[in-house]
Please model this.
Amino acid sequence: MPPRFEFSIHATDGRARTGTIRMRRGEIRTPAFMPVGTAATVKAMKPRDVRAAGADVILGNTYHLMLRPGAERVARLGGLHRFMNWDRPILTDSGGYQVMSLSDLRKITEEGVTFASHIDGSRHMLSPERSMEIQRLLGSDIVMAFDECPKIDQPREEIARSMEMSMRWARRSREGFDAGGAHAENAALFGIQQGALDEGLRKASADALAEIGFDGYAIGGLAVGEGQEAMFATLDFAPEQLPQDAPRYLMGVGKPDDLVGAVERGVDMFDCVLPTRSGRNGQAFTWEGALNMRNARHAEDTGPLDPRCPCPTCATYSRAYLHHLVKSGEMLGAMLMTEHNIWFYQQLMQAMRDAIAAGSFAAFAAEFRRDYLRR
Model:
C-alpha cells in the first residue's frame, strides 16, 4: 500500500530542489503548482482536463465549501473527491485567509473567528477544531492548520501577537487533526509559518511549528500586497528556517516569474487563482510574457497563443479566433484561455524540475527571465 505521506528529494541545484510526495491517492512531483478549485471546481475546466495538463494535486477552499454546499453535505455525498470526480490528492486550505479578509464581517478571539457569511449573512464560528472537522468531512489529503493572516503593514508588536496566537492555533489544529480517526491515518497536516516580513518572528514561528511537528510547512502571510522585491527578500531566509526534510509550500503565489524566483529560494509547492482568473479575463501566459487577447493586434493573427506550447488550445485555435471569443464575451473563450494557462503553468513546473535534475537551474532561470520579462 502507498504510504500515508512520504517526501523524497531527488536532486538539488543551489537552494532549488526537486522531489516527490507519495500519498495514498498518488504522487505529487515537486516543485508543484496546484490549480485552485475553490468551490469544488477548477473554474472553466473539467477534472480530467486539469489532470491532462499535468496537475498532480488541486486545492479546495474550506471557507467556500463550508458555506456552500456545506461540508456535512459533501460528506454525505461521499467526500470531495467523489463529489467533483477528482481521484488524486486534494489540499484544502483552512479557511483562515478568507475569514480574515472579511474585515468588518468578523471578530477574532482566542477561541477562533466569528463571521458573517458573504452569501446570506448567516453567522458562523471557525476555530482550529472546526477547521479540522470541516477538512475531515471534505476528506482532503493535505489539511492546513488554522491560522491568522494579519495585514502586512501592521506594527511589529501586532504581527508578533498574531503569530503567537497562530502558533497556539497550530497546536490545537494538530490535536484536532490527530483526533480524526481514519482520516488522520490517511491524510497529512501542514503547519503555516507567519511573521510577515520580519526574520526574527519568522524564525520563532518556524521553531514553534517544528516543535509541534507537521508533515509539511507552508509560508503564509506573503503575496498580500508587499510586492515581489519584499516577498523575495523574505524568501531569502524563510524557507531555510523550516525543516529541510519536509515540503515547503508558498501559499497564494503567483505570477510565473514569482514561481521561478521562489523555487530558486527553496520552495516546493504553490497555488494561485491567477492562471484561471486571468484566463477568464482574456490574459494568456506564454514563454515570451503575458498577452492581453483583447488587444487589436491579435485580431488577424493566425498563429497560436504560444508556438512552444503543446496544449489543445494552441494546437487547434488561432490568436485571431481567441481574440474574437474574448472580445465577444463567449464562454468558450474563457474555457480555452484557462486551459492554455493551466497547461503553461504545469509546463513551467516540469521545466524547472528538469533543470534542477540536470544541474542547470541557474541557466534556465536566466533564460526564462530574459524571454518572459522582455515584453
Remarks:
- The chain is about 45% helix and 20% strand.
- The longest strand covers residues 6-13.
- The chain has two domains: 6-271, 279-372.
- Residues 279-372 form one domain.
